[in-house]
Write a structure and sequence with these properties.
With 142 residues, this protein is mainly β. It has one helix and ten strands; from the N terminus they run βββββββββαβ.
Length: 142
Amino acid sequence: MKVITLKRFCLTELGVFGVMIEQAVIPFPFCLTLELPWMNNEKEKSCIPKGEYLCKRIKSPHFGEVFQVMDVPNRDNILIHKANWTTDLLGCIGIGEQFEETINPKNGKVCTSVMASNNAFIEFMKVRLANDQEFRLVVVEC
């Protein structure tokens, strides 16, 4: 089973920013991540706790084919999907290819966003995990 590490390197009150690393022979970072800030694991308001999780490929009614992070304590429906701003997230993990200061069209505020989310999502689903129905996600902070 593949192991992917989500390494959080910037935790702020506005969001949590990180990178996903495939644990191959040579660990290789392949996309950036955006999460909600830590709010004591509160449902739909917080990123998930550090730890190890099984992720399974599912069909989401809203996002289509995605991976769901399983067995998050006191949480459910945690998905890895396309997202640009924290307002696109309800406790899920958004992925992209570059960080950028942008104006969030949902609230008009300048914030750090993750851009090229569609490209990152295609690589994640159709290249990195093309033939995988599940993988192990290790969430760490540095």
